Amino acid sequence: MTDPTLPAEYEDLRKAVEAFTREEVAPVIGDYYERHAFPYPIIAAMGRMGLFGLPYPSEYGGMDGDYFALCIALEELARADSSVAITLEAGVSLGSMPVYRFGTEEQKTRWLPELCRGERLAAFGLTEPEGGSDAGAVSTKAGEDPATGNWVINGSKSFITNSGTDITSLITVMAVTGREPDGRTELSCVLVPSGSPGLIVEPAYSKVGWCASDTHGLTFDNCRVPAENLLGERGRGYAQFLRILDEGRIAIAALSTGLAQGCVDESLRYVKDRSAFGHKIGEYQAIQFKIADMEARAHTARLAWRHAAGLLGAGKPFKKEASIAKLVASEAAMANAREATQIFGGYGFMNEYAVGRFYRDAKILEIGEGTSEVQRLLIARSLNLA
């Protein structure tokens, strides 16, 4: 979209999520963060608001919205806390979106209603211990049992968000299912319900940030699921996850923008109260310039993700713009978190202040769903430089 003013329906959504974040998330999320506890009551409230169903049609329990609406919600949530925002982002753009994009009607009808209501969460099992940025280097294997036709999965996944909560219902797993005629690895996606025999959810990671979100490694030890749990066409797993990641980069850009803007919000409040050398520190030009740069970064990041989301919504190519948005916004988040911590001084190093959480949360945004280096590579390729 070219008009920076949000249409009424988006602005109403933004205000509703802003109020929810201010009144129900910000006052309590620090306690969850400190305890490394998953905020089930907050997630349930988000479900009742319809946030998990924003981009889906009402026939599956959704809100008849779009991806742009999801990103609006993500930005507003991340202005207060990224753990809550990433739970929504991963639950929708990585969790339920593959089912909606590629699933059969039966799969959509079975899984989407509970996911859209936020009563259950889904996860996307892509990253592996030896994979990292080389997401196509998949070693997890899914073979067909000749006696039953069921899939038998063996392997492991790393850093999987929403994979071990009490309300996790489904994990989409990308696995090697054979060889293409030209000898290349055949990759397919298989839906693995929580509690499937042979699915082992490893202990939760001890993370630097996102401490109120859920992240586990997964092990598949002869994990068996029905043949009909194949997601989409066999051998199309790589193309499926590329589409999901392209869209997800816009969502992460919106989340990053929220964190960047949250740093501005917190700094503005602080510099009006904090005094040094007989003056409010907001009166010093050095501080003013820092906050001006922070606001410029957040503004630029917002324009970038809105442009990419507008292209996606219009059915136009958006891959390059998604990478630009993700790169610009994630680096804005990291820079703003650093500057906000500097403005707060010693208090910025204390977890009781939001900027302490922002600083811990910002770095992963330059890594997850494609590192900054990967985004630069994709942008260069789009310019025929590689």
From TrEMBL:
Q: Where is the Acyl-CoA oxidase/dehydrogenase middle domain?
A: 123-223
Query: What InterPro entries does the record point to?
Result: Acyl-CoA_DH_CS, Acyl-CoA_Oxase/DH_mid-dom, Acyl-CoA_Oxase/DH_mid-dom_sf, AcylCo_DH-like_C, AcylCo_DH/oxidase_C, AcylCoA_DH/ox_N, AcylCoA_DH/ox_N_sf, AcylCoA_DH/oxidase_NM_dom_sf
Write out the entry's keywords from A to Z.
Answer: FAD, Flavoprotein, Oxidoreductase
Has the keyword Flavoprotein been applied to this entry? yes
Q: Which PROSITE patterns match?
A: ACYL_COA_DH_1 (PS00072), ACYL_COA_DH_2 (PS00073)
Gene3D superfamilies given in the database record: Acyl-CoA dehydrogenase/oxidase, N-terminal domain, Butyryl-CoA Dehydrogenase, subunit A, domain 2, Butyryl-CoA Dehydrogenase, subunit A, domain 3
What is its cofactor? FAD
- Pfam families, alphabetized: Acyl-CoA_dh_1, Acyl-CoA_dh_M, Acyl-CoA_dh_N
Q: Cite the SUPFAM superfamilies for this sequence.
A: Acyl-CoA dehydrogenase C-terminal domain-like, Acyl-CoA dehydrogenase NM domain-like
Top-level lineage group: Bacteria
Acyl-CoA dehydrogenase/oxidase N-terminal domain mapped to chain residues: 8-119
Q: Which residues form the Acyl-CoA dehydrogenase/oxidase C-terminal domain?
A: 235-383
The terms under GO molecular function for this entry are: acyl-CoA dehydrogenase activity; flavin adenine dinucleotide binding
Keyword ATP-binding appears in the UniProt entry: no
- State the family named in the UniProt similarity comment for this chain: Belongs to the acyl-CoA dehydrogenase family.
Name of the protein = Acyl-CoA dehydrogenase family protein
Species the sequence originates in: Actinospica durhamensis
Q: Lineage of the source organism? A: Bacteria, Bacillati, Actinomycetota, Actinomycetes, Catenulisporales
